[in-house]
Amino acid sequence: MKLYNINNIDHFCELINGCKGEVSLVTKDGSELNLKSKLSQFVALSQYFGSGKIPELEIRAEEPQDVILIARYLMSA
Questions:
Q1: Which residue range forms the structural domain that includes residue 28?
Q2: N or C: which end of the chain has fewer CB within 10 A?
Q3: 32 near 60, Cβ under 8 Å?
Q4: pTM of the entire structure?
C-alpha cells in the first residue's frame, strides 16, 4: 500500500506500533524493513523526511485488521 504526504511522523509511528502484526517499509529496490523495530523506524524514516514530512512510501502489513487501521488513518489524515 502506498502512502502519501505523511505530515505527522510521530502519529504515524504510533499507528505502526499499534498494529498487531508485522509492518514493513518496502524500499525502492524491493527490500523490506520491519517498521515495528524502533531502530528500523529511525533509520528508514530518517531517509524519507528531510523536510519534516514523508512525501511517499510503500508499506506492507501482514494482518488484515492492520490494513484497515492504516486505511482509516489515511482517510482521517
A1: 2-76
A2: N
A3: yes
A4: 0.78
